[in-house]
């Protein structure tokens, strides 16, 4: 939702609550619930990067991650080289190389404690998410079909990555790890900004076969994320005021503006706890305490 923007400040009590939630999640992964370590947090990040890297590697390069990068993890479900224009293709290539580098960096930094990349669904899961967002049971969404579909699929991931790193940052103790996480957060924010800008440029175009303009499609995906994570106010589309079911956005109205940077009232990026992030990538409301689903059919993997 676009307005009002909510306050998102890391007070000590909020940080303690976040740590308690994360402890509960890691307890379900058969990890010690005595403390959440930097290794736990970085392995969670590695699980997310495995998903993004597999998607972009297939979309841009037409191949999955190699066994060294995945730690001999299972092959992904779905995946294909995307049919991209000469303008979007180089962008997809660059993001793919960044995400692959993130996986390599985290696996190297964690060494023997690095988790094996879990099985990820980068095919049918997108269709499931889109149907849930649009409230439909027909029409199939192919994330590799063209520029617009690829960007919409990427949008599902990018803002989640930014909020995940932002939420985890206060929990990281080692300054070296914190610096690295901050660097990855910055790159993820660059990616999110690029994807949001490209979608904003297409705001008035229609997504086939849905006969829905891009602006509204994005708004629906955004609303799905903020509904799953239980907040209802930490996710925005790409135009403001937000797109509605009754809206047709050509030409743009005088009171319509871009919404390229989703922030709170202080222009600070939103945070998500690990349970909130998992609720989105598992495609299940946080109130159900999901342990697997959607993009992670078997859940995420703990540290070795």
> How would you spell out the order of helices and strands?
HHHHHHHEEHEEH
Number of domain modules = 1
Distance between the termini: 39 Å
- Strand arrangement, major sheet: 1-2
Strand residue percentage = under 5%
Question: pLDDT below 50 for ≥5 consecutive residues: which ranges?
Answer: 1-24, 26-34
Number of strands: 4
The average pLDDT score comes to 88
Number of helices: 9
* Main β sheet profile: 2 strands, antiparallel
Radius of gyration: 18 Å
Indicate the structural class: mainly alpha
* Oligomer category: single chain
- Quick one: overall form? globular
Helix proportion of residues, in percent? 40-55%
Short description:
This protein is an all-alpha fold and 304 residues long.
Explain the layout of strands and helices:
Layout (H helix, E strand, L loop, with lengths): L11 H17 L9 H24 L5 H4 L17 H23 L13 H11 L12 H22 L6 H27 L4 E2 L4 E2 H15 L10 E2 L16 E2 L15 H8 L23
Antiparallel strand pairs: 1-2, 3-4
Which terms would index this structure?
304 residues; mainly alpha; disordered N terminus
Characterise the protein shown here.
The chain contains nine helices and four strands; from the N terminus they run αααααααββαββα. It is globular. Residues 1-24 and 26-34 have low confidence and may be disordered. Helices cover 50% and strands 3% of the residues. The strands form two sheets. A two-stranded antiparallel ribbon has the order 1-2. A two-stranded antiparallel sheet has the order 3-4. A hairpin with a 4-residue loop joins β1 and β2. The chain is an all-alpha fold and 304 residues long. The chain has helices at 12-28, 38-61, 67-70, 88-110, 124-134, 147-168, 175-201, 214-228, 274-281; strands spanning 206-207, 212-213, 239-240, 257-258. The protein has one domain. α6 (147-168) runs antiparallel to α9 (274-281). The longest helix has 27 residues, at 175-201.
């Amino acid at each position: 939702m676009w307005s009002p923007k909510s306050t998102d400040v890391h007070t000590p009590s909020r940080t303690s609550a976040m740590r308690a939630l994360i402890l509960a999640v890691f307890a379900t992964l058969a990890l010690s619930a005595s403390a959440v370590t930097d290794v736990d947090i970085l392995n969670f990040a590695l699980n997310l990067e495995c998903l993004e890297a597999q998607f972009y590697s297939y979309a841009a390069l037409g191949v999955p991650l190699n066994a060294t990068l995945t730690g001999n993890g299972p092959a992904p479900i779905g995946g294909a080289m995307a049919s991209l224009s000469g303008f979007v293709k180089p962008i997809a290539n660059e993001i793919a190389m960044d995400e692959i580098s993130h996986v390599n960096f985290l696996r190297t930094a964690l060494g023997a404690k690095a988790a094996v990349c879990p099985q990820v669904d980068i095919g049918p899961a997108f269709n499931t998410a889109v149907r849930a967002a649009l409230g439909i049971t027909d029409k199939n969404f192919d994330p590799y079909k063209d520029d617009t579909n690829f960007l919409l699929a990427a949008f599902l991931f990018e803002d989640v990555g930014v909020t995940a790193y932002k939420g985890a940052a206060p929990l990281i103790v080692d300054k070296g790890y914190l610096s690295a996480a901050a660097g990855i957060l910055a790159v993820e924010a660059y990616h999110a900004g690029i994807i949001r800008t490209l979608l904003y440029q297409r705001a008035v175009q229609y997504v086939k076969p849905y006969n829905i303009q891009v602006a509204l499609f994005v708004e629906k995906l955004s609303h799905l994320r903020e509904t799953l994570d239980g907040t209802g106010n930490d996710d925005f589309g790409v135009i403001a005021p937000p797109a509605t079911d009754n809206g047709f956005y050509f030409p743009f109205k005088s009171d319509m503006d871009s919404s390229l940077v989703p922030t709170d009232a202080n222009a600070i990026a939103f945070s998500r706890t690990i349970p909130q992030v998992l609720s989105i990538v598992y495609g299940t409301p946080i109130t159900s305490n999901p342990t697997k689903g959607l993009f992670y059919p078997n859940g995420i993997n703990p540290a070795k």
